[in-house]
Structures are given as structure tokens and as C-alpha cells.
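How it folds
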Amino acid sequence: MSHASTTALAPSVAQQPVAQRPGTRLSLVTAGGVAVGLFAAARLTGMAVLALAAWAGGRHPLTLLGRSWDSAWYLGIAAHGYGRTLYFGPGIIHSDLAFFPLYPALIGALTAVTPLSGAGAGLLVSWAAAAVAAAGVYAVGARLHGRAVGTALVLLWGLLPHSVVLSMAYTEPVLTALAAWALYAVLAGNWLWAGSLAALAGLSRPNGFAVAAAVLLAAARELYRARGRVTHRLWTGAALAPLGWTGYVLWVGHRTGDTLGGYFGVQRLWGSRFDFGRGSLAFARTLLLRGDRFVFPVALLIVAAAVVLFALLALDRAPLPLLAYTAVLLLIALGGSGFFESKPRFLLPAFPLLLPLARALVRTARARPWHATVVVTALAGLSFGYGTYLVLYARTPL
């Protein structure tokens, strides 16, 4: 991609010439290391708080982190392959075909070459992916708005109310790692990397298709602007991007005897389907009128905040790939029915939504450092406390 087209994808990239000057690569790596270190410190502190609460209640923290809710399904797939189905009643059938294969494949590969148990391997994969994700989140933020914003973006992502999931045997760290670096590759014009990472993201989670959507839309805009005169790398990257997601969906369809609709039938039996938000609106109305457990109002607030943040991101004229990626994640979260309490987790990979907050935090830190410290401390307290509550005390799926 030419310099002009790269600037077209990310207007603010042109404001970051420091990344092109000799002698800055090491400092960039160092700055990224500091950001990842802050993320690791945040997550380790959160895990320590959870561990103390778990031990006080006679429970083992690593068991909670490695074998809770969906983690058990992934571990079963890693150990025995697909084929597990649970029947809860008429129209309520939970099949492991609902879970995409990349994460259990990584667990299986790790257990094959190490003495780790499935849960241990799952946690190691998630923790390593979270670190790679944090580096990618920093890279995107720093490329667009400078190193300080990149660092603030990583810190805010690590202190979200549901960020405890980033320390668990779940797929969100894997998806975010692939998504962040795919988006960075698009901004840098590396189409082959972008398409390859998007394909892998599509194998990690149902909403991993958001990465392919971002790559495809960015490629389409570049094709339009260049009037079709683009390199084969763009065509190849665009062709690769949706292969992971569509390949798994078609494989499940073939296995169930309904090539195009089989996967979505599996999801419907889990109580999860895309109904353009009707189920979510009905649940929110019931929640507001009757009230419910603590988890549900918090989920509603987080989803509402995500909508506001997306509006701010759009008003900030963020690059098209970031807008497309977050829009698809929001559309899937808002338009899907079932498991309303899990919607904040579904939005964990939507880190670009935090860009407006990261920029505001940097401005505050420069003008009033004490105020920024109070904000970060409050966010940390909320994240650690609520994360511990979700894992230890809440009786709802993560």
C-alpha cells in the first residue's frame, strides 16, 4: 500500500512520524513493554484479590479460573474432540458444536508436548494471548494517537469490569490478540498478515467474524480509491479473511446435515439467536420494570456505555477498520438474544471503544495527575471487586 493510501485509512497516522525515524524502534518496544507490564500488574493484582477471597471460602483459585462455565466445554473438546451434547428439556439442547475450534486446538497441542493438565494449558494459552493482545492494543493506540494514549488504552482494557475473563480459560484473550494485530496490519497496509490473522480470529469465536468484516471493508474502500489498481496482496488478504469463520460454520452445517443453517440451529438450541435486538429489548424492559440480580443491571449499564462510546469513537473520526470491527461486535451483542449477562464479555474484544476514554485520561494526567490517579484507582477497585464477585458469588454464566 502506498503512503497516501495508508494515511487514508488512518488520518492520524501521518501525525506519528516518530515511528519512522532511525533509533526509535527500541524506544517503541520499551514503551510497549511498559504498557504490557502495567496490564500484567493490573491482572495479577486482580487475580491476587480473587485468590484471597477464594481461599477464604475454601475454594482453589486456579480451579475457578480454569474450569468455570464455558471453560469446561473447551477442555472437553480439547481432550475428546467434538461430540458432547446435553439435553435439558424440549428445545433446550446444548451441543459443543457451538464452540469454535482454535482455542481447544491450542490447549490440545500444549497438553501433547507438556505435562500440563487441560486446565493448566488453557490458562497458559489465555494468559499468553492476553499479553499478546495487550501489546497489540498498545500498538494500535500508539500508532493512532501516540504512546501515552496507547499505554492508557491498554490499562483501561485491563481494568474493565469484566476483565477477570482475561485471566480465565476463555477465548476472549485469543480473539483480542488476533483482532488487535489484524487491525494494526490493516492500518500499516500489510494485507496478507491482516487476512491471515482475520482467518484465525474467525476460528476462535462466533463474533470473530468482526475482524474479517473490518479487513474486507477496508480492502473494499482501498480498491475503490485506487480504482482497482491494487496489489495481489490486498486481493489475497481479503480472500483469506473470512475463511476461518465460514469454514467452521460450513463444517458444522455438514456435520448436522444442514450446510448453511446447521450452526445457527445449534446456537438456537442454546437459546442464542440473532433477532435484531428484540430479545435484548424485552429483557431490558423486564429488568427495568421488575429489577433483578446485581449482574444484570451492571450488564445493562455496560452495554449502554458501549453504545455511547461507539458514538464518541465515530465522532472522533476513527479509521474505518476500527469502526467496522467495533460496529459488528456491537451489532452481534445487541442483536443477539439469550445470555444477556454475558454481553459485557462479548464486548471485551471491542477495545477501540476505549480510545476516547484513553485520550481523555491522558489529557487529565497531563493537566491534573492526581485526578487521573484517582480515576485509575477507582477503576481498579471496581474491576478487582466485581471480577471476584462474578467468579465466586454470582450464579450466572460468564
About this structure: Confidence is low (pLDDT under 50) at residues 1-23. The first strand starts at residue 85 and ends at 89.
